[in-house]
Amino acid sequence: MPEAKPIAVLAADVAPRVKPSVYPEPFYSMMKGREKRTLGDLFGLTNFGVNLTRILPGGQSALRHYHSRQDEFIYILSGTATLVTDVGETVLTAGMCAGFKAGLPDGHVLTNQGSEDVVYLEVGDRTPGDTASYPDDDIAAEMVDGAWRFTHKDGTPYP
Length: 159
Hints:
Elements: E1 34-38, H1 39-42, E2 48-55, E3 66-67, E4 72-78, E5 80-85, E6 88-93, E7 97-100, E8 109-111, E9 118-125, E10 131-133, E11 140-144, E12 147-151
Antiparallel strand pairs: 1-2, 2-9, 3-10, 4-7, 4-9, 5-6, 5-8, 10-11, 11-12
């Protein structure tokens, strides 16, 4: 019998993801200031993901990246985040949102340059065949059988 999914939960009560990142080192360690609660997975959602994410002061959401097929959307619940894109830096406060269309080569990352935690919702689809590009780092990602596979930009796999 399949595991029963909850009808509703308090998002803040959902346990954080055990592993803070799927990135290989040296990038994995850069995500220690980030905590994700995978809300969509809790409900068995398969077409899109929803995370309640907390960035501690000095932390960041991810490496600056963009997706080939996945749209992304964020909504700031509390704190002050700095969105970094090719255009520059944009300050985002509670109630503000931003979206990132698949296939547009403008990398994005949220950083917490303040002294209080940033809490936000992130939503992304799960389109098969997605890739992620990282303009600032020697890493590339490809979604293979539901998991990210990381290589250097020259195609050499990470250990």
